[in-house]
């Protein structure tokens, strides 16, 4: 990736903030940080000074080796502001800024044929479906058991002619997964058969939103006859054949984003957010904190996912003809990048999730998704161990939110459904965190009307 990187560093320590001077760069683009400010809650407030109207990205690291995107945006009047609320979770942090020389965000066209669709019922037992294209392409979607806490119908639509792709040969297999903004526990597997005589070394996979926006590369595992794409959420997923130059250009495609990716993502109604409705309704501060974290993790995941996909694609093109699988060396690099993402973006936030139901939902979904993605890519599940996830604390926090919300008068069937959802999740994971009696107490409290008295019947 041909990106100019500027050695502008800031490190957050327990005793304060230290700015190291930047090395001399081109005078036409004087990029530097102003003195950082530590807020009363120990959040770090950064001000990046550059050229007015220029696009910049700010990244963070705990080891000066693995870097993750915090925010990107335009320097209005030459200034880009960033508040990093999670800085207090780390003993030390480094920041760097760079000029974005990426290509504009890409939106592709998605002509749909409803005759090439299938509805799939997802449940705690999983779900699967198969689609066949007019040219014989076979696309198989499969979600294993214990990957979805509730029943949900999704629709898979085969896309036979995706337009606007950055690959001259188009796509040989792509599907649209509806409804939008639906997260899976773990990850589903989307398997697409390779065309006859296709060179597996040229395969690259991509993902975009349900409306075709936010086109980005996505990791995959390519064998001799098919490609498997881990699917962590709904959207469009597909595979193409790309030259080395097309792959390099695809890596440079920017992401659709608001000026600051750490801001809460508005308008999302992810499938896993349904259990957080009491938090959203009665504890908006908790929900806002969870939304902010979701924005940060999503932004960092997009960058890491694209980096992993580019790594897999580039190493695949270097293989000798006749290879039938990705090399163990490149898979080891995938593991390292995935683990670095988990260690910096998810693991430090588990303590806060003990008292925030919505945050627990966000972290749990991402952690389970990373683990399943690693398995599908042929990497061992060592980055996001289940023992790290405080399932019982999160479930109890969610039940407490429902109880307090109902005590405030926000009763009704939706609150009762939340309690039953928590029970199903508890049973799904085999945890035994909640007893039937304590769940029933909350259900009784949340019932919109109660009756007491005597009843008699004469036959």
Mean pLDDT: 83
The helicity comes to: 25-40%
Q: Give the radius of gyration.
A: 24 Å
Tell me the fraction of residues in β-strands, as a range.
Answer: 25-35%
End-to-end span in angstroms?
Answer: 84 Å
User: Which regions have little confidence, pLDDT < 50, spanning 5+ residues?
Assistant: 1-27, 258-276
User: What order do the strands of the largest sheet run in, or round the barrel if closed?
Assistant: 10-13-14-20-16-17
Helix segment tally: 9
Oligomer: single chain
Structural class: alpha+beta
What's the helix-strand series? EEEEEEEEEEEEEEEEEEEEHHHHHHHHH
Q: Biggest sheet: strands, sense, closure? A: 6 strands, antiparallel
Count every beta strand, where a strand is a DSSP E run of 2 or more residues.
20
Which descriptor suits the 3D outline?
A: globular
């Amino acid at each position: 990736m041909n990106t100019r990187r500027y050695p502008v560093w800031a490190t957050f320590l327990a005793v304060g903030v230290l700015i190291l001077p930047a090395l001399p760069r081109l005078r036409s683009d004087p990029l530097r940080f102003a003195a950082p400010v530590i807020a009363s809650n120990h959040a770090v407030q950064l001000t990046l000074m550059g050229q007015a109207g220029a696009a910049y990205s700010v990244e963070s690291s705990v080891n000066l080796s693995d870097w993750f995107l915090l925010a990107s945006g335009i320097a209005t009047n030459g200034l880009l502001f960033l508040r990093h609320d999670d800085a207090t979770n780390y003993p030390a942090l480094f920041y760097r800024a760079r000029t974005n020389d990426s290509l504009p965000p890409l939106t592709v066209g998605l002509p749909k044929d409803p005759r090439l669709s299938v509805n799939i019922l997802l449940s705690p037992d999983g779900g699967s479906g198969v689609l066949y294209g007019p040219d014989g392409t076979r696309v198989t979607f499969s979600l294993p058991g214990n990957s979805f806490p509730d029943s949900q119908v999704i629709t898979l639509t085969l896309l036979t002619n995706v337009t606007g792709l950055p690959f001259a040969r188009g796509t040989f297999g792509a599907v649209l997964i509806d409804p939008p903004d639906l997260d899976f526990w773990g990850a589903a597997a989307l398997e697409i058969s390779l065309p006859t005589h296709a060179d597996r070394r040229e395969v690259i996979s991509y993902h975009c939103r349900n409306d075709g926006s936010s086109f980005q590369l996505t990791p995959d595992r390519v064998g001799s006859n098919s490609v498997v794409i881990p699917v962590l959420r709904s959207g469009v997923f597909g595979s193409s054949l790309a030259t080395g130059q097309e792959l390099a250009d695809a890596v440079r495609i920017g992401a659709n984003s608001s000026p600051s990716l750490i801001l809460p993502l508005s308008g999302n109604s992810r499938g896993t957010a349904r259990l957080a409705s009491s938090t959203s309704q009665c504890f908006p501060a908790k929900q806002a904190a969870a939304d902010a974290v979701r924005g940060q993790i999503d932004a960092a995941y997009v960058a890491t996912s694209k980096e992993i996909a580019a790594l897999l694609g580039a190493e695949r093109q270097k293989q000798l003809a006749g290879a039938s699988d990705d090399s163990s060396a490149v898979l080891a690099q995938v593991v390292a990048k995935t683990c670095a993402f988990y260690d910096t973006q998810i693991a430090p936030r588990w303590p806060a999730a003990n008292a925030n139901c919505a945050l627990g939902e966000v972290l749990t979904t991402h952690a389970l998704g990373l683990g399943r993605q690693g398995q599908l890519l042929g990497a061992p599940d060592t980055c996001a161990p289940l023992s790290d996830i405080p399932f019982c604390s999160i479930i109890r926090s969610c039940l407490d939110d429902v109880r307090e919300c109902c005590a405030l008068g926000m009763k009704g069937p939706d609150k009762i459904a939340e309690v039953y959802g928590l029970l199903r999740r508890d049973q799904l994971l085999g945890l035994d965190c909640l007893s039937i009696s304590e769940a029933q107490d909350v259900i009784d409290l949340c019932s919109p009307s109660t009756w007491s008295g005597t009843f008699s019947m004469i036959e």
